[in-house]
Automatic annotation (TrEMBL):
The chain crosses the membrane at residues 507-531, 592-611, 617-636, 652-673, 679-698. This is TMM8A factor. It is a multi-pass membrane protein. GO terms for cellular component: plasma membrane. Residues 285-305 have a biased composition (Low complexity). Residues 285-313 are annotated as: Disordered. It holds the Pfam family DUF3522. It comes from the Eukaryota. Its main location: membrane. The lineage of its organism: Eukaryota, Metazoa, Chordata, Craniata, Vertebrata. Disulfide bonds join 459-469, 484-493. The keyword Disulfide bond applies. Keywords: Cell membrane, Disulfide bond, EGF-like domain, Membrane, Transmembrane, Transmembrane helix. Coiled coil: none annotated.
Length: 732
């Protein structure tokens, strides 16, 4: 046989600490057919700075769909199917780089996914630019070894083969036909080159992660051995590997035979399906009533034919709605007839390659009036690749190489729901059958009506009221995940273990909004001292900061008067401009120069915030430049007057020092103390401290300006006016 090796690589990604699924970095690979060996090369590295500490990187693997992970140990939604992912840990302790290999023999062909992430996030809110985070990088490369001429085992045709040595196993493949109910693999005429009984091991199927259902058959000391499989995957290539367990120099001669038991389905004819599809989409048309009469007459004859078949197939139409959003519609109506003689089968097509990034939801609703037996139960199985055809014998929903998901409805529990998170790319099947409590012979003529609702959605229940469904992208692959808020967690934001109560949410909203009213004293001081431009800026900041925080709340206490992005931009702009005008006002510049700097600085701040809204230098840059201007102006004033400026010690002790102290405390709280848990009161403290510092730092009014004399400007009494006009006399 000719082996060909191939290499696939993707660019490295910077890892993040885990708080939701969007923090996990996803890698998407495609394994070709006839692959006998798959090797992952996992490379992890970290920076060399002092901020880089030893770290554990968790890597998850899955075939067919992104891995379903739960690093935080939160609860999944009810009725959701969760199977643990296959994961490994890569340690970065002393070494700056770590290289790990993961080998998978006879892997399943198709899509493979790798997800990598750091441990749980600490929850601290870091100001961008104050600290340098350590870069942790991860890259995954894939090596495959595949056969270019793998022999094909024809069903029902014996194939003689030779296994040369234990180091050179034999690989063959067989195509499973559609509607195959069972498969039997037989090994005969198995002898060694020394004419002794053979010792071989046969592996049927491919390895999939996190769970592998590869079947093993060991033949030792016997000439013939066989293995029977129920419900093999339809229209799939099944790989068979034969390994010799004998001595290194002895070859093994054997003969392989694969036979299938094919199930004859009973379903409505394609003509009837076409008529039903046209009637459901276009409605009644001229001549439709006449054309539906033969269909009504032909239905009973077709139903009688279904009684003798091993399964009843119902036609299903796949309707694509949006990205990772599909609805399945039954042509014969939402109600499906279910009998005890043979299972009813529905095909849910999810093999497009872009459907595995959502959630498959299947809901069953039993019509209680349609069941004649009170204790009868409708058993259902949702499985991938092949349907479950023996619901009357077993209810664990297992097929030859996969494990399905069971469902059941009865008169006591008439509704059942199943949520498959990130369903693997394949054909999915829903099998239903009526089960009688005392055996199938009791209800031979019974029938139940079950309403089936099946759809694919990006996020189940749209992540609920405390979550946001985000559509993520890795190269051309799209998948969805929930980002939770207000302390809620879980895959669909249904875990309320750490959830904030409604009272806590209201308190957080009130603190973050009403704390902005502390700017009112600063506005009053600015107006009293004739700093009207500064007072206008403070009013603008107070207004938009109040309504931005009212809109920014994660819970139910939310009020948005404008678009969220507009409110956020105006809040950030007002905050930085307020600091800018306050420091320039303290510099005591000439009016024309001060107002020119006001306008020019505001324009530059608006531009920088548009470029990077959360950068620390958007705030620190204007502050430092304004401080340089203020210090320069103070030095100029001091040199001109030949004494320290400001000259009054009371001004320093009772105004400047308290204002500077409050400003430094506010900056410390903002930069080093805020976390996701204490944000609502630490940020409120920041509002209060900054507002109070502004009231202390504003300089006194100019000496030539008189205070506001409202009693003189707004008078409501008589005044005696004196005529100061000069009298001119003419002399004649």
């Amino acid at each position: 046989s000719l082996y060909v090796s191939e290499y696939f690589s993707q660019s490295a990604q910077k890892l993040s600490f885990y708080s939701w699924y969007g923090n996990a970095k996803l890698f998407h690979f495609h394994v070709p057919e006839d692959t006998v060996l798959l090797r992952w090369l996992l490379q992890a590295s970290r920076g060399k700075g002092p901020e880089c500490t030893p770290m554990e990187i968790t890597v998850h693997f899955r075939h067919g769909a992104p891995p379903v992970i739960n690093p935080l140990g939160t609860r999944f939604p009810a009725n959701a199917t969760v199977r643990p992912s296959y994961s490994i840990s890569i340690s970065l302790s002393r070494a700056v780089q770590n290289t790990t290999f993961v080998n998978v023999t006879t892997p399943a062909a198709g899509d493979w996914f790798i997800a990598a992430h750091l441990p749980e996030a600490a929850g601290r809110i870091e100001v961008k630019g104050f600290s340098t985070p350590c870069p942790y990088m991860f890259q995954a490369d894939m090596f495959v070894l595949r056969l270019t001429d793998m022999p094909v085992l024809e069903p029902g045709v014996p194939m003689p083969r030779t296994v040369l040595s234990p180091a050179k196993p034999l690989h063959v493949k067989v195509l499973v036909p559609k509607h195959a109910a069972g498969m039997r693999f037989q090994l005969s005429s198995c002898v060694t080159s020394e004419q002794r009984a053979c010792a071989v091991r046969v592996l049927l199927g491919s390895i999939t992660l996190p769970q592998s259902f590869q079947r093993s058959l060991t033949c030792t000391g016997s000439i013939n051995c066989s293995l029977a499989l129920d419900s093999p995957p339809w229209e799939k290539w099944l790989q068979i590997t034969v390994e010799s367990l004998g001595t290194a120099n002895a070859s093994v001669l054997l003969e392989m035979l694969a036979s299938f038991t094919v199930c004859r389905p009973g379903s409505t004819s394609s003509f009837l399906n076409f008529i039903s599809l046209n009637q459901s989409q276009a409605g009644a048309r001229p001549g439709a009533a006449g054309s539906s009469a033969p269909a009504a007459g032909g239905a009973p004859r077709n139903a009688s034919g279904q009684r003798s078949s091993c399964l009843q197939s119902q036609p299903v139409v796949r309707e694509d709605l949006d990205v990772v959003s599909v609805r399945y519609r039954l042509l014969n109506g939402p109600s499906v007839p279910v009998s005890p003689l043979s299972p009813t089968l529905l095909l849910l097509n999810l093999n497009t390659g872009v459907d595995s990034g959502g959630s498959l939801v299947v809901t069953l609703l039993l019509n209680k009036t349609s069941v004649s037996l009170a204790n009868a139960t409708v058993a259902a199985c949702v499985s991938a690749a092949s349907p479950v055809l023996s619901l009357n014998a077993t209810r664990n929903c297992s097929t030859a190489f996969s494990q399905g998901y069971p469902l059941s409805v009865s008169t006591s529990s008439a509704e059942a729901m199943l949520i498959v998170l990130y369903p693997q790319t394949d054909d999915w099947f829903l099998s239903l059958q009526l089960l009688c409590p005392k055996g199938q012979g009791e209800c031979t003529s019974a029938e139940a009506k079950v309403t089936v609702f099946a759809y694919l959605t990006p996020c189940f229940n749209d992540c609920g009221p405390y979550g946001q469904c985000s559509l993520l992208r890795r190269h051309g692959y799209l998948y969805a995940a929930c980002s939770c808020k207000a302390g809620w967690g879980g895959w669909s934001c249904t875990d309320d273990t750490k959830a904030q109560s409604v009272g806590t949410q209201n308190l957080a909203t009130l603190l973050l909004t009403l704390s902005n009213l502390m700017l009112l004293p600063s506005i009053a001081v600015a107006v009293y001292r004739f700093y009207l431009v500064e007072a206008s800026v403070y009013t603008y900041t107070m207004f938009f900061s109040t309504f931005y925080h009212a809109c920014d709340q994660p819970g139910v206490a939310v009020m948005c008067i404008m678009d969220y992005d507009t409110l956020q931009y105006c809040d950030f702009l007002g905050s930085v401009v307020s600091i800018w005008v306050t420091i320039l006002c303290m510099a005591r510049l000439k009016k024309i120069l001060k107002y020119v700097l006001f306008v020019l600085g505001t324009l530059l701040i608006a531009m920088s915030l548009q470029l990077d809204r959360r950068g620390v230098w958007n705030m620190m840059g204007p502050c430092l430049f304004a401080l340089v201007i203020m210090v320069t102006a103070w030095v100029h004033h001091g040199a001109k007057r030949r004494h320290c400026y400001p000259s009054s010690w009371k001004r320093w002790v009772f105004y400047l020092l308290p204002g500077i102290t409050l400003a430094f405390i506010a900056i410390s709280v903002y930069a080093f103390m805020e976390t996701n848990e204490n944000y609502y009161y630490t940020h409120s403290i920041w509002h209060v401290l900054v507002a109070c510092s502004v009231a202390f730092l504003l300089p006194p009014r100019d000496k030539h300006k008189k205070p506001w004399a409202w009693s003189q400007k707004l008078t409501c009494r008589y005044q005696i006016c004196q005529n100061d006009r000069e009298e001119l006399y003419a002399v004649t």
